[in-house]
Design a protein that fits this description.
The structure holds two protein chains of two kinds. Chain A has one domain (5-114): Four Helix Bundle (Hemerythrin (Met), subunit A) (Up-down Bundle). Helices cover 81% and strands 0% of the residues of chain A. Chain A has helices spanning 5-14, 19-46, 53-66, 69-84, 90-114. The longest helix of chain A has 28 residues, at 19-46. Chain A is elongated and about 45 Å long. Chain B is an alpha/beta fold. The termini of chain B are far apart. Chain B has twelve helices and 14 strands. In chain B, helix 1 (13-25) links the parallel strand 1 and strand 2 (29-33). The chains are: A mainly alpha, B alpha/beta. At the A-B interface, helix 1, helix 2 and helix 3 of A face helix 1 of B.
């Protein structure tokens, strides 16, 4: 799992140190990412390569926002392959995305309880 | 800084919440939209408060940033609303496309609040400047069109032109002046009802006014039953003498129709016209608070005297005008004799215009009757 602590620190800084708001933002990230992963699964089961683009893109930009660099990279390559029209090992890669997401969300929430 | 109402358009709830939070943090009012379609609906909603600026994500379902921007630029009411594109670092190609399509600026995602504040302020300031400029132009145009109702269109155009001031200050130029007024108008005013007199004057002014505009004459003034117009100023008209004669002939023809109507009601009204060519001083004449665009010179006095000399229905033209007009029009005329006029030490040779010849050019002017 990779989580760039600087990204969260930066979010905290630009919101004027409002931890409660950052907690809300993390919840928004987690909820939204779940929706996107569901979207990826649905696209995979229907074999619709094009339908992978949007959830992969959203997940990528969300992951960038919170500093989840590996999750962002996994999503970015899914988006790029989907745009190119062929995604090798789609199911396995979605599994990897989901596993990384689980670790990232746990870490983000752990940060919260620790603070 | 004046608070603005800003529409944040992004399909990702995370980005929207963050943008809203940052906008509110720097004192603006934030409105959200989840995609381009929703954004356009909100922008076009006549019942909602108007949006001052749009922060636009590029990648969105339904309607993406490019499509949204194109739709805004194609919509007259939304064209002027500044759009700042919010993009991730890997979308630089798209950013360039957006700027070319009319976006005011761009910002990276997870933007610094100070940069956000500065870019928004700059875009809003630019829009205010453009709005002011547009209002100013609209005011000038309104003034100009109002002015054109009080002045000759040529003079109204002159006032707002670049060399207007120099022209208004005064200049000398050869012009052809034309006076026309009614014979026995005083008698008509006494015998007719005031409403009839006013009704007649309205019809008379409308008919003559239309002809003056059509023939591109500069109307110096009109008073009651008389008009004074001139040609070749402020707009140059090399054929000014011929133009004046054409206008006079057209006036006489139209007036015949108008007066026939009144003749049936027992009122005999006739038109007399005098035309002369010569140098005059032209420009602003009057005093602070009331200026006219006027002409001063012996040609104007001569035209006025000739108009006074003209018998009912006559167009009496100075010999110099006739000579100058010959090159530009086929004029059927006869000698009007040498006239002794008040203020002129020597008799003035004149012509009476019968009408305009059928063909232009090679025939030259046909002069009927006595000595030329």
């Amino acid at each position: 799992m990779t989580l760039d602590a600087e990204a969260m620190a930066r979010l905290l800084e630009i919101t004027g140190g409002d931890q409660a708001f950052i907690d809300e933002l993390v919840d928004t990230f987690v909820d939204d990412a779940r929706t996107q992963i569901e979207g990826l699964r649905a696209a995979a089961s229907s074999g619709d390569t094009e339908a992978v683009v949007r959830p992969a893109h959203s997940l990528k930009s969300n992951a960038q926002n919170v500093g989840a660099t590996l999750l962002a990279e996994l999503s970015r390559s899914l988006e790029a392959d989907a745009r190119a029209g062929a995604i090798p090992d789609l199911t396995a890669r979605i599994d990897a995305v989901e596993m990384e997401f689980g670790a990232v969300s746990a870490a983000l929430r752990a940060d919260r309880t620790r603070d | 800084m004046t608070p603005a109402r800003i529409l944040a358009v992004d399909d990702t709830p995370f980005n929207r919440r963050l943008l809203v939070r940052l906008l509110e943090g720097i004192g603006h009012e934030a409105v959200e939209a989840g995609d381009g379609r929703e954004a356009l609906e909100r922008l076009r909603d006549a019942d909602a408060q108007p949006i001052d600026l749009v922060l636009l994500d590029i990648e969105m379902p339904e309607m993406n940033g490019h499509e949204t921007l194109a739709a805004m630029k194609a919509d007259e009411r939304l064209r002027e609303v500044p759009v700042i594109v919010v993009s991730s670092v890997d979308e630089l190609d798209s950013v360039v496309r957006c700027i070319r399509a009319g976006a005011a600026d761009y910002l990276p995602k997870t933007v610094d609040p100070e940069i956000l504040r500065a870019r928004i302020e700059a875009s809003l300031a630019q829009k205010r400047l453009r709005d002011n400029e547009r209002d100013l132009l609209a005011t000038i145009e309104r003034q100009r069109s109002q002015l054109a109702r009080f002045l000759s269109p040529q003079v109204a155009a002159l006032v707002s032109s670049a060399d207007g001031e120099a022209m208004l200050a005064g200049h000398r130029r050869e012009i052809t002046a034309m006076f026309c007024d009614l014979r026995n108008f005083t008698g008509f005013s006494e015998s007719a009802e005031p409403e009839e007199v006013l009704g007649f004057l309205r019809a008379y002014h409308a008919t003559m006014g239309t002809l003056i505009v059509e023939h591109e004459a500069t109307l110096e003034h009109f008073a009651g039953d008389g008009f004074m117009t001139f040609f070749n100023d402020p707009v140059l008209q090399p054929d000014h003498a011929a133009r004046a004669i054409r206008l006079a002939v057209a006036m006489r023809q139209q007036f015949a129709t108008l007066s026939a109507d009144w003749r049936r009601r027992g009122h005999v009204l006739e038109l007399g016209i005098g035309i002369a060519t010569g140098y005059a001083t032209l420009g602003r004449i009057g005093f602070e608070g009331r200026y006219d665009y006027g002409a001063i010179g012996s040609a104007i006095i001569l035209a006025s005297r000739l108009s006074g000399e003209a018998a009912p229905g006559e167009i009496l033209v100075a010999a110099r005008t006739f000579a100058e007009a010959e090159g530009d029009a086929v004029i059927v005329a006869e000698s009007g004799g040498d006239r002794t006029l008040k203020g002129f030490s020597r008799p003035v040779p004149t012509y009476l215009v019968v009408g305009l010849g059928e063909a232009a050019g090679d025939l030259g002017s046909a002069v009927e009757g006595v000595s030329r």
